[in-house]
Amino acid sequence: MIIHTSRFGELDIQEQEVIRFEQGIPGFEDLRRFVLIEVPDHEPFSYLQCIDDSEVSFIVTDPFEFFADFECELPVPVVEDLKIVSAEQVLVRAIVSIHGELESATANLVAPVIINRAERTGKQVVLAKTSYATRHALFQPSESESK
After folding, report:
1. Smaller CB count within 10 Å for the chain: N or C?
2. Rounded to an integer, what distance in angstroms lies between the CA atom of residue 32 and that of residue 24?
3. Which H, E and C letters describe 3-63, residue by residue?
4. C-alpha to C-alpha distance for 130 and 97, rounded to whole angstroms
5. What is the DSSP string of 81-116?
6. Do the Cβ atoms of 138 and 106 come closer than 8 Å?
7. Are 22 and 124 in contact (CB under 8 A)?
């Protein structure tokens, strides 16, 4: 299927690449179908592109690449909703916000996006009782910058 995007132009995607968010994403509840776009030159970032609205796209990343001690315990209802039966099915992504330069980018660790790769379903999950923030800095300033 051909989809139109504001960021990447026309893309040809396969139906099996579509990730269904049954409840949408908070703030975008009416948008349910997304595709994860990997751009080799943009690693470690990728894009969660809405199929139903070409203007809606989220920059996402693997939070474990930036935060080695990141923990994401999923509530039982989320596991059941997404039909997760093994950890190998789970893909965790954090939505990234870039304000100005890439060096000031932040990740939302309070509400990661959880994707069941096998079922092609997803959900943004708000973690309970967490010390994480919605704006964790991805890049720490170097010693010379902090002086």
Report:
1. C
2. 5
3. EEECCCEEEECCHHHEEECCCCECCECCCCEEEEEECHHHCCEEEEEECCCCCCEEEEECH
4. 20
5. HTT--SGGGEEEEEEEE--SSGGG-EE--SS-EEEE
6. yes
7. no
Structural domains of the chain, ranges and CATH numbers in brackets: 2-140 (2.30.290.10)
Positive or negative: CA dihedral 94, 74, 51, 42: positive
- pLDDT one-digit tens code per residue, 99-112: 888 888 999 999 99
Chain mean position to CA 47: 8
Bridge partners (DSSP) listed for residue 4: 10
CA 3 to chain centre: 20
CA 22/CA 48 separation, integer angstroms: 15
What is the chain's mean pLDDT, rounded? 90
